Amino acid sequence: DTGVSQDPRHKITKRGQNVTFRCDPISEHNRLYWYRQTLGQGPEFLTYFQNEAQLEKSRLLSDRFSAERPKGSFSTLEIQRTEQGDSAMYLCASSFVAGFPHEQFFGPGTRLTVL
Amino acid sequence: GDSVTQMEGPVTLSEEAFLTINCTYTATGYPSLFWYVQYPGEGLQLLLKATKADDKGSNKGFEATYRKETTSFHLEKGSVQVSDSAVYFCALTLNTNAGKSTFGDGTTLTVKP
């Protein structure tokens, strides 16, 4: 098992464009989380899935953001009509719900820069 | 709501110095507590954890004790190394079904030879 992977690692886009990020969790993990981390801050929760069901969304997740986990495996996070304020590191984490209480394994992140 | 407050950084120490990074929390329920470390360009790695009051988490010479009476989880290491230079995040997760984490803003540690 190679851990949680994210693609791409870096994305530069122009304001107004749409972007999509992918996260591949650890294979046996049934929970998947998305966080956003801005410079000098800790990660902030965006949303999470249990299997394919999206169970909670933060108020930070505006209607320009959408996340999916179609078959309960990988997940995508799409941002439509990007704004400069969307520039951040987007982190994905996974966990196994019956395992140690809420120990999450993080991927390397996707750094988004909106010009 | 839930929150985590860490001591402000950056922290600069000489090699072999003693390290303390303070962390306090407020939680609406009963949390598990974590310290994560982030090296430049990388994701977060779990450093240590504690799930109930008076538990001590330890790993790689780092320790932290879950103090419910003071709502604290301070990170300590007796002798830091240059390789410990990184950003350290304190976090809590409520022991509920969601399992989402609330993080502090991080403390940057630089260890000089």
What does this structure look like?
The complex is a heterodimer of chains A (115) and B (113). In chain A, 0% of the residues lie in helices and 49% in strands. The model of chain A has no long low-confidence stretch (mean pLDDT 91). Chain A starts with a strand and ends with a strand. Chain A is mainly β and 115 residues long. In chain A, strands 2, 4, 5, 6, 9, 10 and 11 form a seven-stranded mixed beta sheet that branches. Chain B has 113 residues and is mainly beta. Helix content of chain B is 0%, strand content 52%. In chain B, a hairpin with a 2-residue loop joins strand 7 (56-59) and strand 8. Chain B is globular and about 45 Å long. The termini of chain B are far apart.
Main beta-sheet strand count, sense and barrel state of chain A: 7 strands, mixed
Ranges of chain A where pLDDT stays below 50 over 5 or more residues in a row are none
For the sheet with most strands of chain B, the description reads: 6 strands, mixed
Q: What distance lies between the first and last C-alpha atoms of chain A, to the nearest angstrom?
A: 36 Å
Average of per-residue pLDDT values of chain B: 93
Instruction: Determine the structural class of chain A based on helices, strands and strand pairing.
Output: mainly beta
The percentage helix of chain B is under 10%
Order of helices and strands of chain A: EEEEEEEEEEE
- End-to-end Cα distance of chain B, whole Å, is 41 Å
Find the biggest chain interface. A-B, 27 and 25 residues
Main attributes?
heterodimer; A: 115 residues; mainly beta; seven-stranded mixed beta sheet; four-stranded antiparallel beta sheet; 11 strands; 49% strand; globular; B: 113 residues; six-stranded mixed beta sheet; 12 strands; 0% helix
SSE blueprint and pairings:
The complex is a heterodimer of chains A (115) and B (113).
Chain A: E1 5-7, E2 10-13, E3 19-24, E4 31-37, E5 44-50, E6 53-57, E7 65-68, E8 75-79, E9 88-95, E10 105-106, E11 110-114
Parallel strand pairs in A: 2-11
Antiparallel strand pairs in A: 1-3, 3-8, 4-5, 4-9, 5-6, 7-8, 9-10, 9-11
Chain B: E1 3-6, E2 11-14, E3 19-21, E4 23-26, E5 31-38, E6 44-50, E7 56-59, E8 62-65, E9 75-77, E10 86-94, E11 101-103, E12 107-112
Parallel strand pairs in B: 2-12
Antiparallel strand pairs in B: 1-4, 3-9, 5-6, 5-10, 7-8, 8-9, 10-11, 10-12
